[in-house]
């Protein structure tokens, strides 16, 4: 738990660190006044644009004016920060000069110079600088807290200025309130006058006390504070409401608003006074002094940018997006939520520690093709597919990414992120289309499980409602979707406005699908066409984001005449819809049938996948069978050896037993002989004893003994002899008996040994029998395994034949040996990357039909409940436009957005607009966040979106343009040290893509830019289909370690320029980056291209005339020489990009071209940074730089990013203009120069060698 708390605090510190970087990094997009620019500098003695003669803004348009008051150099911010956080560092330690301008505040004025109160924005950067150099200072806990409150207090006074309630002292006497001598602002010395009689500055009670008292005394201060309540309340009410009531259809309200109402609301939103320069100067000086930055930032200029707006949106304004951080408030909010345990998984993954990231096992897709193929198995391919050409499915790396995204994140309870690394031209948009399709189909699967269309919504009793605070009689309500239908919302976000618009403006159009294969594809196409302004097939995506886009969406998609969703639903409510109400049951069945067909085809391909698995390498079954047979054979050998041993043992036991039997017989015979002798001896003893007894009885009587002694003596002698004989006989008997006992013992011993040997014989015989039985079993197993192996071999042979037939039937869609080749086999790699395993046209078409059926089911749901949906969408439009009350509960807002996403599955926004658009939504309220061009996004830009999302798919390329951070790296380091954050988290160190890459366990390693360590990138897209060979090879080498595969095939010859060319123009020894000689060569190239375009137009015209003699068939440009010339110039501009690493070169190039009668639109001529996400047939790169400007060239070549962007904008031809000697040896540029052996020509226009001096005509044949 302690570790978890420490990790949470670490992540919160990162967010607070990023917030501080945001405060000190004002956006650098304010346009500087200058030649050809709309922005003008306000100066004393010159009329303000709204006070003078202004050219007409156009039909049904009016002028609006953005005022940037208190312009300051962003460089001063870095200096101020360094002076406080690192006072001992020298200027050169703080990094190079920072370009760009900030402003103390911005405000928008109407055509009469009146203030739109909702438009005023105070600079958070200037506020942060004041908090740093003054009170409370960076050591205070509340150092960067409280901006919103300070802004409200200051804006109150500005509203009073707009209403004319503040007296402006323009006497010219300007008192300095600091050590800096009072300077003029826009040539004037006006300031806000502290005058209790006007009630002006008294709108800020907390700030005015000392100021008023110092000027007018305590009584005036008391009077001023007493007046503050009503004035401040009125102003704060306007500020907090931020409501827009423009463009509402009368049907949108239960009670129609009157013109008086509209006028009143407009008057409340507008200031009452046409502002003069003196007013702007006074408020600028006053704000500067209030923030305490007058001396530090020297904000002395006022710039004004006029722009026309349509009358429909004339009163639609918001805070300007060019002076403040878009993310600081979100970062602070998410940091607090994180500390409260309310962060969400995506944010936690994004901010994960190194230890957490490194503990997850990674899959390197370049090193393990077999695993990649496993993740391409038909079983894991989503049901839905974009309705593109069935014969052009996603290639393996794209489908691999989609499969893994859906497998990891599609479960309703799934949370987290997945990064896709998309080098240029590798099909990021194509991939995102299929992701949209997969998600929409998932929601349709839920719909198809419902009993009826009304079941898609909660009971009416659970409807959420609200009233307009100013029109209590007017009520809006939303019946929310059931929970099971939520979590599918798709938000596409990016720092690059063009990137997200490219997706959401493109995918609804007819050109984004294969209308030939899917001629009936249609999902609210009428409303989508109204919105896009071109033929569309389906309302699957919409561009939202900034308020103007959201209002435009509501006006066209909802209120659009005839085909807008509002009139369409009305027709279904009234029963007047053509064809009647579509059958929800039929749509449901069609969807189910489409899914069933996909499952049928999936099953077929799973069977083929099984065949491939059998044939793709060593067959596991056959290997097991053969291994089993080998094991049985080994056991058989062991058993035979054992059997032989057992037989030998049995024979030995038999011999021993026989010997024992012989011994028993011998001993039994010996015992019998002894027994015979014993019996004989016993009988002899008995006879002797009998004789002895009888002899004893024959002893003479005693009286005879007395008289006949001789007889007695004779008897004695005879008896003694008998006794001796008996004794001897007895001894003989005893000896015989002893021998008999011995013989009996010996016999018994022999019998026992015989019994034992008999048992041993039996045991040995049983062992032999057991061994032979086991041997027989083994032999049977061997035969069985051999039979099964042979059967398996036949199965494999048959499978191989069948698999080859499948390959012939579905060429390119059944994997081959390329998937089992070693990773270093490039030929095999290129083959497998350009294939689409299992996704043959039949399967692809069926999956696309599932998407179309899914959209039909969505549409049927809408039109089956037209009244409910109409009422829901009426309320939703208020939420989308930002017209709903600020205090709506999160659940109500969420219900509205979820309803919108049910109708339009995906919407786009910039990161800058996301916090405003989704204000009020909390953690994981959005189903899916898709971040495009994430390599350009600073890491902090994505935090608010990630926190609001359950799932995030981050797509981008860190090897393209890097994030732009106004605060230089040394300043970022100072702040990192202050917040105890590792410098790894500095915005300039890593992009949003880099952080997402490290958290994605599926990807590959690329060499690091410092070549010291490798860098992990998320799931890579690898087939490049934009550039011709030179550009592809250079990009692949300098940025991608050869990871990409060239998918450009079958292109026709490019007639405008067949050769890539390096025009070697010698740079001056010193001076500026701009070299006029390079401009001269550029003009020569453009003239040649223009001539060729003109020739092609003549050929085109001839072809038209051959086909038709009707003059009306000719294009308009063919009928007027001036139109023809304009058309040629337009085609030229559409064919090229002119780029340079340096802004100075572009500025001078534009001027030089104008002087030479070439007007190239700014969108086709800019620094390399301006071309990200775009492409052209020809890119002309003007390098520039004098010979002594080595540091400038080192900057341009330090990483592959800049050159990589430039060359990957080029579809067909790259033309480089610059000093070959200066540039060709530089890092990354050396790779380009090294291709001068055929793919790139080097030409020196001043060379004396004839073949080299043949002119641009010969170099671009």
UniProtKB/TrEMBL annotation:
In what ranges is there compositional bias, type Polar residues? 256-268
Source domain of life is Bacteria
Where is each DNA2/NAM7 helicase-like C-terminal domain found?
A: 1125-1220
Could you list this entry's UniProt keywords, alphabetically sorted.
Answer: ATP-binding, Coiled coil, Helicase, Hydrolase, Nucleotide-binding
Q: Which residues form the DNA2/NAM7 helicase helicase domain?
A: 925-965
- Composition bias of kind Basic and acidic residues appears in 240-255
Kindly list any coiled-coil regions of this protein.
671-698, 761-806
Matches recorded under InterPro entries: Coronavir_polyprotein_1ab, DNA2/NAM7-like_C, DNA2/NAM7_AAA_11, P-loop_NTPase
For region Disordered, the annotated ranges are: 239-268
Q: Which Pfam families match?
A: AAA_11, AAA_12
Q: Which residues form the signal peptide?
A: none
Molecular function (GO) terms for this protein are: ATP binding; DNA helicase activity; hydrolase activity
The similarity comment for this entry is: Belongs to the DNA2/NAM7 helicase family.
Identify this protein by name: AAA domain-containing protein
Q: Which organism is it from?
A: Nocardia speluncae
């Amino acid at each position: 738990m302690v570790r978890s708390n420490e990790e949470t605090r670490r992540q919160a510190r990162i967010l607070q660190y990023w917030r501080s970087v945001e405060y000190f990094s004002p956006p650098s997009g304010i346009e500087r006044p200058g030649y050809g620019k709309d922005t003008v500098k306000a100066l004393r003695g010159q009329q303000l644009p709204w006070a003078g003669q202004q050219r007409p803004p156009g039909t049904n348009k009016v002028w609006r004016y953005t005022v940037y008051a208190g312009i300051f150099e962003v460089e001063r911010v870095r200096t101020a920060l360094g002076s406080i956080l690192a006072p001992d560092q020298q200027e050169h330690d703080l990094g190079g000069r920072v370009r760009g301008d900030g402003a103390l505040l911005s405000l928008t004025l109407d055509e009469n110079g009146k203030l739109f109160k909702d438009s005023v924005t105070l600079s958070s950067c200037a506020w942060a600088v004041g908090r740093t150099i003054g009170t409370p200072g960076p050591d205070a806990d509340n150092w960067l807290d409280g901006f919103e409150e300070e802004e409200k207090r200051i804006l109150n006074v500005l509203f009073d200025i707009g209403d004319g309630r503040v007296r402006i002292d323009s006497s010219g006497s300007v008192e300095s309130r600091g050590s800096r001598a009072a300077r003029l602002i826009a040539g004037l010395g006006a300031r806000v006058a502290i005058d209790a009689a006007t009630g002006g500055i008294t709108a800020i009670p907390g700030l005015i006390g000392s100021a008023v008292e110092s000027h007018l005394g305590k009584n005036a201060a008391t009077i001023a504070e007493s007046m503050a309540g009503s004035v401040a309340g009125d102003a704060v009410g306007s500020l907090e409401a931020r409501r827009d009531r423009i463009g509402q259809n009368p049907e949108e309200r239960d009670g129609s608003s009157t013109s008086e109402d509209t006028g009143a609301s407009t008057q409340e939103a507008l200031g009452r006074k046409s502002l003069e320069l003196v007013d702007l100067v006074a408020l600028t000086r006053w704000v500067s002094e209030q923030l305490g930055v007058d001396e530090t930032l020297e904000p002395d200029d006022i710039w004004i940018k006029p722009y026309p707006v349509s009358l429909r949106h004339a009163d639609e304004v918001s805070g300007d997006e060019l002076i403040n951080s878009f993310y600081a408030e979100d970062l602070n909010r998410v940091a607090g939520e994180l500390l409260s345990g309310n962060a969400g998984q995506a944010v936690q993954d994004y901010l994960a520690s190194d230890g957490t990231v490194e503990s997850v096992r990674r899959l390197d897709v370049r090193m393990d093709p077999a695993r990649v193929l496993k993740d391409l198995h038909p079983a894991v391919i989503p049901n839905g597919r974009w309705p593109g050409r069935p014969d052009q499915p996603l290639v393996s790396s794209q489908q691999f990414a989609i499969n893994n995204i859906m497998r990891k994140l599609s479960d309703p309870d799934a949370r987290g992120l997945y990064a896709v690394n998309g080098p240029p031209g590798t099909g990021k948009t194509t991939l995102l289309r299929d992701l949209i399709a997969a998600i929409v189909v998932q929601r349709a699967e839920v719909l198809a499980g419902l009993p009826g269309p009304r079941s898609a919504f909660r009971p009416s009793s659970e409807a959420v409602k609200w009233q307009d605070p100013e029109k209590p009689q007017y009520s809006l309500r939303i019946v929310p979707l059931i929970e099971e239908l939520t979590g599918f919302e798709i938000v596409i976000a990016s720092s690059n406005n063009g990137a997200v618009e490219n997706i959401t403006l493109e995918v609804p159009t007819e050109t984004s699908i294969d209308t030939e294969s899917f001629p009936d594809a249609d999902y609210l196409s009428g409303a989508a066409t109204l919105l896009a302004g071109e033929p569309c097939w389906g309302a699957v995506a919409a561009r939202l984001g900034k308020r103007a886009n959201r209002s435009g969406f509501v006006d066209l998609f909802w209120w659009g005449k005839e085909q807008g969703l509002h009139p369409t639903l009305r027709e279904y409510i009234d029963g007047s819809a053509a064809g009647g109400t579509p059958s929800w049951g039929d749509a449901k069945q069609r969807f189910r049938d489409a899914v069933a067909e996909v499952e049928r085809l999936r099953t077929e391909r799973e069977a083929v996948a099984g065949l491939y698995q059998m044939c793709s390498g060593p067959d596991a079954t056959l290997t097991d069978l053969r291994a089993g047979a080998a094991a049985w054979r080994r056991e058989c050998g062991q058993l035979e050896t054992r059997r032989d041993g057992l037989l030998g043992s049995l024979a030995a036991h038999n011999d021993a037993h026989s010997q024992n039997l012989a011994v028993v017989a011998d001993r039994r015979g010996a015992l019998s002989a002894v027994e015979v002798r014993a019996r004989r001896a016993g009988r002899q003893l008995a006879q002797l004893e009998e004789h002895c007894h009888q002899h004893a009885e024959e002893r003479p009587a005693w009286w005879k003994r007395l008289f006949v002694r001789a007889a007695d003596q004779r008897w004695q002698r005879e008896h003694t002899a008998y006794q001796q004989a008996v004794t001897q006989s007895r001894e003989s008997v005893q000896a015989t008996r002893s021998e008999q006992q011995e013989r009996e013992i010996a016999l018994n011993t022999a019998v026992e040994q015989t019994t034992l040997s008999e048992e041993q014989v039996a045991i040995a015989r049983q062992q032999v029998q057991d061994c032979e039985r086991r041997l027989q079993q083994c032999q049977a197993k061997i035969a069985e395994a051999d039979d099964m192996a042979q059967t398996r071999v036949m199965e494999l042979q048959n499978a191989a034949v069948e698999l080859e037939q499948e390959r012939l039937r579905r060429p390119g869609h059944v994997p081959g040996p390329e998937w089992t080749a070693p990773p270093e086999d490039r030929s095999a790699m290129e083959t497998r990357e350009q294939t689409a395993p299992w996704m043959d046209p039949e399967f692809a078409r069926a999956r696309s039909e599932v998407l179309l059926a899914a959209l039909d089911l969505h549409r049927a749901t809408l039109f089956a409940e037209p009244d409910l949906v109409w009422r829901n969408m009426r309320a939703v439009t208020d939420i989308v436009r930002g017209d709903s009350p600020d205090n709506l509960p999160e659940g109500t807002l969420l219900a509205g957005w979820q309803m919108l996403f049910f109708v339009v599955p995906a919407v786009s926004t910039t990161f800058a607009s996301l916090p405003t658009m989704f204000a009020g939504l909390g953690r994981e309220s959005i189903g899916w966040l898709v971040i495009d061009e994430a390599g350009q996004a600073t890491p902090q830009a994505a935090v608010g979106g990630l926190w609001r999302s359950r799932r995030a798919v981050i797509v981008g390329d860190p090897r393209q343009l890097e994030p732009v951070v106004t605060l230089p790296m040394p300043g970022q380091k100072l702040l990192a040290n202050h917040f105890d954050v590792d410098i790894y988290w500095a915005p300039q160190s890593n992009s949003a893509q880099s952080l997402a890459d490290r958290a994605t366990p599926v990807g590959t390693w690329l060499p690091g830019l410092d070549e010291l360590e490798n860098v992990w990138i998320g799931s890579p897209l690898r087939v490049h289909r934009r550039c011709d060979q030179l550009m592809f090879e250079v990009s692949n080498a300098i940025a991608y370690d050869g990871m990409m595969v060239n998918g450009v095939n079958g292109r026709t010859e490019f007639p405008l320029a067949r050769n890539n060319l390096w025009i070697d123009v010698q740079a001056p020894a010193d001076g500026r980056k701009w070299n006029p000689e390079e401009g001269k060569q550029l003009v020569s190239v453009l003239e040649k291209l223009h001539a060729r375009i003109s020739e092609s137009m003549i050929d085109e015209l001839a072809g038209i005339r051959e086909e038709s003699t009707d003059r009306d068939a000719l294009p308009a440009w063919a009928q007027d020489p001036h139109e023809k010339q304009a058309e040629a110039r337009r085609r030229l501009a559409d064919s090229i990009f002119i780029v340079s690493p340096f802004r100075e070169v572009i500025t001078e190039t534009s001027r030089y071209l104008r002087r030479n009668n070439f007007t190239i639109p700014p969108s086709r001529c800019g620094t390399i940074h301006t071309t990200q996400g775009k492409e052209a047939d020809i890119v002309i790169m003007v390098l520039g730089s004098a010979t002594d400007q080595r540091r400038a060239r080192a900057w341009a070549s330090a990483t592959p990013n800049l050159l990589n962007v430039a060359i990957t904008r080029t579809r067909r031809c790259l033309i480089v203009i610059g000093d070959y000697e200066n540039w060709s040896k530089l890092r990354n540029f050396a790779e380009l120069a090294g291709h001068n052996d055929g793919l790139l020509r080097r030409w020196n226009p001043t060379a004396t060698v004839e073949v080299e001096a043949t002119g641009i005509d010969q170099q671009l044949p």
